[in-house]
Amino acid sequence: MDMKKMMKQAQRMQRDLQAAQDEVKNMEFEATSGGGMVTAKVTGDNEVKEIIINPEAVDPEDVEMLQDMIVAAVNEALRTAGETAAARMNAVTGGMGIPGF
User: Fold this and answer.
1) What is the pLDDT of residues 49-89, one digit of tens each?
2) pTM more than 0.90
3) Who contacts 77 (Cβ-Cβ below 8 Å, separation ≥6)?
4) What are 41's strand-pairing partners?
5) Strands 28-33 and 48-53
6) Cα gap 31→3, rounded to integer Å
7) How far is CA 81 from CA 5, 19, 73, 75, in A?
8) By percentage, how much of the chain surpasses pLDDT 70?
9) Residue 94, CB-side half-sphere exposure with 13 Å CA sphere
């Protein structure tokens, strides 16, 4: 294979990877728990943007359940963001395992 052609392909892949990373970084992901009682919104760069709690979920006698629902919603939103990022990177790299991406 021509070295010059290979370098061009590598540069194109690097640009495509950066574009995919930027795209995912600017996306928002949402997940709920407790049958919709708690909603978490996160960005593709793992920043929690918003937590919405249905007032019916607030039971002073069972704060632990509310805490668990918040953790579950945030973790699910972050998992979805991670899966989406991995899918975008996989689409760009064609499934090649490139360290750091």
Assistant:
1) 999 999 999 998 999 999 999 999 999 999 999 999 888 88
2) no
3) 29, 30, 31, 40, 41, 42
4) 30, 50
5) unpaired
6) 46
7) 34, 16, 12, 10
8) 92
9) 4
DSSP the chain: --HHHHHHHHHHHHHHHHHHHHHHHT-EEEEEETTTTEEEEEETTS-EEEEEE-GGG--TT-HHHHHHHHHHHHHHHHHHHHHHHHHHHHHHHTT---TT-
pLDDT at 96: 64
